[in-house]
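User: Before I run my own analysis I want an independent prediction to cross-check against. Here's the chain; please return only the structure tokens and, at the end, one sentence I can use as a sanity check.
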Amino acid sequence: MKLSAIINAIEEFAPLPLQEKWDNSGLQIGLPDGNGEVTGVLICLDTTEEIVREAVAKGCNLIVSHHPLIFKGFKHLTGSTPQEAAAAAAIRAGVAVYSAHTSLDSTIGGVSYAMAARLGATVSGVIAPADVEYYTVRVICTRSQSSDVRLTLLGQTESCTYSDVEGESMAAPVGDFDPAAGLDLRHEPLTSVSIDIDSLRLGGALRALSGMPGYDKMEVTVTPQQRRSRDYGLGVYATLPDRGMTGAEFADLLRTTFGTACIKASAAYNPGMKVRRIALCGGSAPDFISRANAAGVDAYVTADVRYHDFADAANMSTVIFDIGHFESENCAKDIFYHVITKKFANFAVYKSEKETNPVKYL
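Assistant: Structure tokens:
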């Protein structure tokens, strides 16, 4: 399996343009041409020396992590920091490293979506939507080509429309060309195939079309739409099933679902409170506390909430639940595993067995 194939599968799910400006998602270590053969993939949150050793022991020469190994950049590579040591170990072992950080956080079905799914909640919107444009792609092709065109486009989006073009046809040869008999032609009806697709997947759809036989005879038009996608972005709003639960029941659900040993809650918490409408954002996201409260949700689940964030939220009706950074993002490993194995069913993909939470609760 080529490195480029694995990266393409990840980026089809979590496109790099979704990452925040300060982030460094993408290929961290490895040849950029992507032609290297991948023997196996090890999935983790953080790339450490221990993770590199585990990858080598499992016969994997690619690590896929959520947090970028190279974040602020190295001024030297002496092994004087844990990140430098991990990078040096990966280079020595010939192990490539790819990271999808805020690109995975902001995609449809990403970390916050996965958190909601684990709680059995239904997502209703995004806290901080990304500005993603939509386009209509229309392909005019022969009727015999239309089935392949639809299958190609459905590999990039979930649905398409098609119909014959009234009164239009294209001359197409019948059988092999015989110089003595001349070229036997028939006029084949034309079909219009259309999809609506966001800008993040537009390039993939056009590349897939351009690789099809007979592409030079097709007419392809791309038209921008007025609407914007509201499904991409950081954090989600969601609703718990039935009538929800009490504050105590919700806290217990968070503990068992995310495996956290310690939950911090804001002053408005009480065991008998009602929790049904919630907001969630994996990782460090105290900046969305005000948005969650303005939306009128009962609870906001995130991590890395600071003392002053709790103090500022003391009079808010929305209760903040800080479940820990590692705990909130550990589901990223399941997402990576699903994305890669869905595309490459018989390929060696492992979730790290050595990785542990760097925070200890005493």
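Sanity check: The two ends are 44 Å apart (CA to CA).
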